[in-house]
Specification:
Number of helices: 2
Strand order of the largest sheet: 3-2-1-4-5
Number of strands: 5
Distance between the termini: 43 Å
Radius of gyration: 25 Å
Helix content: 25-40%
Length: 139
């Protein structure tokens, strides 16, 4: 859930390296509405939360070594752009068309038609979508 409040504290606490080798920085963040928690960012000098500025954020309670703490993250609204489902459908469409051309050419040779390619591409595309949705594809 998105929350909004003025940041009254953003204190650096520690630096650490991820298993992948990236350096991250932990901060204790406090807000005017009384919420306090930890924020992890990738820029020590420019954290996403700045004292005196209003910020939109989300919170999540996390457990670590038997202790629970409030994890604070900047709120990002998805305004289009990358869409995993739309991207996946595009990949399925390209793959289906490519394989339909190969299949149709192998099956019909020089006698292949655009309609045959479209038919097989649609079959492949539907099969991939069914698999992706957890359905048993019909062949």
């Amino acid at each position: 859930m998105k929350k909004k409040s003025k940041c009254i504290k953003c204190d650096f606490t520690k630096e650490f390296e991820t298993k992948g080798g990236a350096t991250l920085y932990n901060f204790i963040v406090g807000f005017e509405n009384g919420e306090n928690g930890t924020y992890t960012g990738n820029d020590k000098e420019k954290p996403k939360f700045r004292v005196g500025e209003e910020a939109e954020y989300t919170t999540e309670t996390q457990e670590f070594n038997g202790m629970s703490f409030l994890k604070i993250k900047p709120f990002y609204e998805n305004k289009g752009g990358y869409n995993k489902q739309a991207n996946q459908r595009g990949i399925f469409a390209c793959t289906s068309l490519n394989k339909a051309v190969e299949f149709t050419t192998a099956k019909y040779g020089a006698e292949s038609t655009v309609e045959q390619v479209k038919f097989h591409a649609t079959q492949f595309f539907n099969w991939l979508n069914d698999m992706n949705d957890g359905k048993t594809p019909s062949c």
